[in-house]
Every structure is written in C-alpha cells, then in structure tokens.
Amino acid sequence: MVCVTSQRRPSTLKRIVPIANSLLAALPDRDYRRLHARLEPVTLTFGEVLYHPGDPIRHVYFPTNSLVSLLTLVEGHTALEIGLVGREGMLGIPLALGTKDSPVRALVQGSGAALRIESAHFLGQFRQSAPLQREIHRYIHERMVQITQTAACNRFHHVEARLARWLLMTRDRVQSDQFRLTQELLGCMLGVLRVAVTKAASALQRRKLIHYRRGQISILDGQGLEAAACRCYQVVKDVHDRAPRGHSTNPTEHPSWSTI
Amino acid sequence: MVCVTSQRRPSTLKRIVPIANSLLAALPDRDYRRLHARLEPVTLTFGEVLYHPGDPIRHVYFPTNSLVSLLTLVEGHTALEIGLVGREGMLGIPLALGTKDSPVRALVQGSGAALRIESAHFLGQFRQSAPLQREIHRYIHERMVQITQTAACNRFHHVEARLARWLLMTRDRVQSDQFRLTQELLGCMLGVLRVAVTKAASALQRRKLIHYRRGQISILDGQGLEAAACRCYQVVKDVHDRAPRGHSTNPTEHPSWSTI
DNA sequence: TACGCTCTGTGCGCCAGCGTACATACGGCG
DNA sequence: CGCCGTATGTACGCTGGCGCACAGAGCGTA
Fold it and tell me: Which chain D positions have some atom within 7 A of a protein CB?
C-alpha cells in the first residue's frame, strides 16, 4: 500500500496516511508530494452541493471515503444522475479540459472525507505533471464510458435492474454493504418516481437480496444482486478494472475499486 | 476563412483548400502544417463502420462533409446513439485519453469526405502540439455535455421531440436541409421501434415541418422544428457556440456549427 | 405520551411505447 | 411491363412507468 510521510514539509496532515484516493495513489511520489502541498482535507456532508450547473469550479475534489453523485438538470424535470464519484475518481474534470464552469450539479451522497485543491493550483499542477495528466485522462475515459452506459441503461432497462446496479456501484465506492439513502433520492438518481423505487426495492427485499428500513439500506446478497442487475454494471466495472494505472512498479496494486 | 497553401511540401492536396474541419481550422498554421503532412483524405460511404467496440483504433478521423454517428451496443439490444460527429468534431477521442480501443461503434451516417491520420502519428502530434491538445480537450468537453444531455433526453422526452432534435443536429452538421435516412435507422439512433419513428415523423409532416419520402428527408420549417424539439437541442448548441476556440486572431470566425 | 415529520407501501386511471402482424407504396431490375 | 425488395403506414393488445391520492409506520421532540 502506498503511504506518504509528510516529513519534509509542515503539512495539514500531521501523520503518516495512506493515500485513500486511487487517482492520487497512482502518482509517483515526486508528483504526489508536489500536489500534496496544495491539497486540503475537507469533510463533505450529505446533501451538500459542491458544484452548481453553470457556476465556476472553485475546487477540484478527490473523495476518499465520501460519495458524490453528478446530476444533470433538464428543464424543470427532477434531476438525473449521470455519474457517481468515490475514492476511485475526482470532481472537476471540466477544468482539466479547459472549461471553467461545471455543466452538472455535484451532490454529496455519502458524508465523508475528501481532499481538495483550488482550481488555479490544480491547473498549475496539471500542466506540470505528466503522470497526473495520464491518470486524469484515463479517468475521463472511464467516466465517458460510464455516462454512455448509463444513457443506454436508462433507455432500455427496467427500474429493478437499474436499482440493483446503482446499489452495487455505490457499494463498490463506499466499500461497505450498508449506506444511507432514501427512496426519494433514489428516484432522482434513476430518473423515476419514488413509487417506482418503492416497488423495485420491495421486490429486491422479498428476494432477500437487500434489506431496507427508513433510509438505511443493506446489501444481503451481493451475488444475487449482481444477477438482478443489468450487465451494465459489469461493463463499466470491467473498463475500470482492466485499465492499467499507476507508476507501474506494482501492477497488482490496484486490481479493483475496493483497493486503493 | 482560414486557407492553407501546401506550397512548401509535396502534398496529397495539390491545391489551396479551405480547412473544412473546425478542429483543424482552429489550429495555428504551424501546428496545422505539421499535422497536415500525415493527414490523408478519404471518402466515407454510408453504412461503413469505422470503429467496432473493443477493437483498436487504427485512425483518427476528422470529418469534413461526412457525418458519423456513435452507437453503444447493449447486450443484444439494438444500438443507441450517443454522439453525432460532423465537421465540428473528430473520431478517436479515446486515443487522446490514453486508451487504444474504441468503446463504441462508429457508423457512417452520411457519405462524404474526411481527413484521417494513423493512430501512432496522431499521438505524436498530440504530444507535440499544445493548440491541438487545447482544441481536442475542448471538444471532449463538448462531447461529454452532448452525451449527458442525450442521456437525460432519452429518459425524459418523447419520441417526437427527440426526433425533431436529431434532425436539427444533423442539419447543423451536414449544413443542408436535406439528407438520406430511413426510419429504421432513425429508430436505432433514438432507441425506439421503427413504428414509433413512423408515428412521430408523420406528425411532424402533418405539421408541415418536414417532408419525408423513402429515406429522403427535408426540413421545411427549421424554426417550427426547433419549437417541436426539446430544449436539449439548444443546450448542446449553446455549449458549442459559446466555447472560445482557435488561435484568437479573429474571435468572430467560428460563431456556429455552420461556419468552419 | 402525544404530536408531527419523514419515509414507505398501496391503489387506480392513464398513456407512451413495445411487440407483432399485416397492408400499402415506391422504385429498381430483369 | 411485371416482379420483388425495401420503405412506410396502420392496427391492436400488453405493460411499465406516470401522476396523484392516501394510508400506515418509524422516529424525534415537545
């Protein structure tokens, strides 16, 4: 596991910490240290909105154990989720692509920690560090695949399968079989009415795949849930797992979402 | 209008030609010339498949007056379009992001010309030319917005509005009010049955917005069609139109899709 | 303990799009 | 000219999700 000691510089992190974000963990020490000087640990709380559509991006965020979902707003309509970002990713891709404003809303879905860096500093680092560019480019590709798959999934698959997929994706990112989430919110994510979520969730619960109680949800049978989900889950996961990443000293270092 | 003479090098293009692809046209002369040595003019014909999902990308294409649509395949299902590329864009984004394989199918929708370059050469140029990087980054962002909007559109809007949007998008890219296209194909694009397209197209025709006859479609009333389409059309168009591009000698050079 | 808020479950009429089948129109070709 | 393949139009039963309304259930708080 990659660790970094902040011995040479007075840092906001006083102790030896594992790098709990995959993008950062994949950087060579030299590049990470440079970045680290500008990184600020923050706590994200459920419901917080990090980006509003059309507003300038102030910070780039690297979630560690928090979870953020990206929503697109369609004229009056309730939102639709088009991306889910956890420790495997980052928020603020448009900056890396030369755009100042976020086209989407970033909503904190699971409270937790993240590292953030001011936009100007991020851009400076991004220009300097080829490894950072590589990692971020890889992640952008991953996210494009994710959006694409989600688009098709939303079009073709039924609520129950999509719900199962969403739960699995969330599990992978928070690395836990339990998390908080109301059906109301889930409706937004999936772009369906709350009642549709209720029906689908009830069905999954009857099949003993999940347990649901007042916003607290537990996955009881991951295998079964994967079977209930559409293939879209595997497709996106495969793209992530197969992607080569990091400074290739140890290729087995990052085999899956659940590894740093 | 930007023109390039190929006076200093024996070139595949023997005469002075306007650069009919926006991405290329936005490059400074120096960068364009370097690229030009490796560019090969090709003719794309309707139905041709440029990329198969999972296969390595052999060339990067810059359509000039051809039209290519990007389709994602979902297990057995008929395809779903998630991008439409004309003279304003390029094919082969994954290469620029460090991935060798195309995740989507690229299907030639409208016969016409394009410029292409071998992947290895493209990567060389991409690494060398900051303006090329800037342009492509801008375009990647544009395309992410496009996919995002399409995802939401496919979820929320009805076939008739989506059809209208698709026709307008195509018009912008081929710069003509007429083009060939069967309802069968349109069904794939929109992810609906052919009969649904028939109904929607008939409705638009009854309203004198379009004229349809055996695969030959004409837009009669662009204004009316825009009114019939969902806002998604404007949203994506605005992102394109507002984006600053090119070597900023003449900012009014590229106000819209219909300008080089 | 009682109230109120939030979250979840159920019912019902409605409609867009599905899936399928079949009918018609156009146009190229022998 | 007649044939055939392709493109388009129409019909009909089915179903998933919409939109709305309302009922119960858990939990915090006064």
Answer: 6-12, 16-21, 26-27
